[in-house]
Structure formats: structure tokens, C-alpha cells
């Protein structure tokens, strides 16, 4: 059976970078069925529809994975289409694991003076369906001097426990050269000193789950201390787990450590079920159509998706091709190269063509 992959390029540069990722996937000689969907700002403005009724159930039923681009367009002032597509998939498909590897591929990409690619190699797991993004809250007396806005931060035991357990289970399989024989570390970041209820739940459940994994070393930091540790000593980190809001922030810092938004990938996972994969760069409307967007983020996102589909040999070949391009300076201008978006995709394709299948 072919792997059935829904492709949703989205808006802005997402269309251009996803195009290169699709070209690369098609060159890998795999049994893939790539199914495009038009959901985007253009589609919304033309039809008034963000996603059709039953769309997420259809993806769960008919797709093995979803590859998306980027969303956001100034013509849709409230970003309704982006919210209903992306958050819709996360919540309706229960994609509770946001998986963000922080891996620097080349020393020259690291912004840290004392850390190169070898030291920047860890993973952040962000709870993806609860927290401050759950949509609970409201406004009172809107538009008046007495206006009140309430945003509820929701944590459930089920939600905290399953993302924590996933982080520990992953840590058992995570290999990195700098670990040097020690137990894998799982670090939970929170602010339970000020978040008395949700924070306390995270802290308590983390300790309980950690007891089930004696082969791992549990650690804790307040999230502000974690941001300092990521810059000061990234090699000390293996697996980090945190809530939705804090995860949103620290994963962007992680992306900058590995070389910038243009080279970072993410997975929105429900282990064992249809999951969604997206680069973390935005839609960057001012750059759209100029042929200067960096496609590496989309290409390594496709690599992550292949790993999730069990195509590890193809994923390894793709990573090797990307590493070769980066080392040779065959990149777009944001990484110091001179190539256009499509030329950067061509460079990856040429390196794949020269490789023998494993």
C-alpha cells in the first residue's frame, strides 16, 4: 500500500517551500500518493470556506500523514482560516505531541560562540492541545474603560501524563554523541512557583511518571532558567517537556540555536495515528513570489515525516543530501548562499541522484 500524504501548502512562501519538499519526495523512489488540498487564504477569500465539513475526519481516515506549509495572509485580518486549519487539525485530530528536534546541522549555523553543531542536539516536546491555547475564556465590557479579558490555562491529568510519558519513552531511544554513557535526561520546565494549580499538576505528574522510567534521569527547571541553559550549555539537554505556552516560546529559541526559522521542522503527532508535519517558518507575505524563501525547513520536515512513516533509509539519504548542500554553501541568501528557492531544491535533488539507495 502506498503512503497517503495530504499536502496543504497554505499561504505566502509556504506554497513555494512546500513545492520543493514535494519535488524531493517524488525523487526518492518511494510508493507515495501525494494528495493536494487548496485550503488557504486564497481559497477562503474565493469561497468563504476555511475547511469543508468533515475535513479532519477525512484526514484521519484517508491519510497516513499531512504535510503543510505556512499560514497567514494580511487579506484575512483575523487569520480565521489559519486558526481553523492549523488549530482545527491539532484539536480535532488530537495531535497532542508537538515534536521539535533542536539539531544544528553545521557549525557555521550556530549563533553561539562556544557551541557548535555537536553540542546543539536535543528535543523539545510541547503539549499541543491544552494550556492557554485551549480557547477557554472570554471578554466582559468589551471596548469600554472597564474591559476585562480572561484567558484560561487548561491542564488535565490525562494531557499532562500522556505528553510526559511520551517524552520519557522517547528519551530511551534518543541517541546523541555527547551523552557519553550517562542516562538520558528528561527535563520538565514549568512555573509551579507561581502557577499554583496547573503548575503543581505538571510538577506532581512529572515526578510520578519519572518513577516508571528508572533508566532515565529526571530534571526540573523553571522555564526562564531553561532559556538561559539553552544558550549557556545546550549540550547538557537531551529531552525537554513543557506545556503549550512555554513550549511555543522555547521552541522558537531552539530554532534559532540550530540555524534559524528557515531550517527547522516540527511534527504534530498522535502516536500511531495520522499526524501533521510543518516547517516552523511563517508565511512571510512580503517575501512570497520572489523566489528567495529557504526550502530547507520544508525539506527536513518531509524528512521527519518519512521517519514517522517508517521510511528511515530514505529519511537518512535526504538528511545526508541536505547536509551536503549546507556544507557546500548551496543555499538561499539567508544562509549565505546565492540560490533561489527552486535552485536550492535542485541542489538537494542533484545530491540525491548521485546517492546509491541504501
Tell me about this structure.
- The protein contains eleven helices and twelve strands.
- It is of the alpha/beta class and 358 residues long.
- The protein has two domains: 1-95 and 270-358, Isopropylmalate Dehydrogenase, CATH 3.40.718; 101-262, Isopropylmalate Dehydrogenase.
- It has a ten-stranded mixed β-sheet with strand order 2-1-3-12-11-4-5-10-8-9, sandwiched between helices.
- Strand 6 (137-140) and strand 7 form a beta hairpin.
- Helix 1 (13-26) packs across helix 9 (296-308) and helix 7 (223-232) packs parallel to helix 8 (244-258).
- The longest helix has 17 residues, at 157-173.
- The model has no long low-confidence stretch (mean pLDDT 95).
Features:
358 residues, ten-stranded mixed beta sheet, 2 domains, two-stranded antiparallel ribbon, Isopropylmalate Dehydrogenase, alpha/beta
* Strand-residue proportion: 15-25%
Distance between the termini: 21 Å
Q: Please compute the radius of gyration using only Cα atoms.
A: 20 Å
| Major sheet strand order | 2-1-3-12-11-4-5-10-8-9
Class of the largest domain, according to the CATH hierarchy?
Alpha Beta
Overall structural domain count: 2
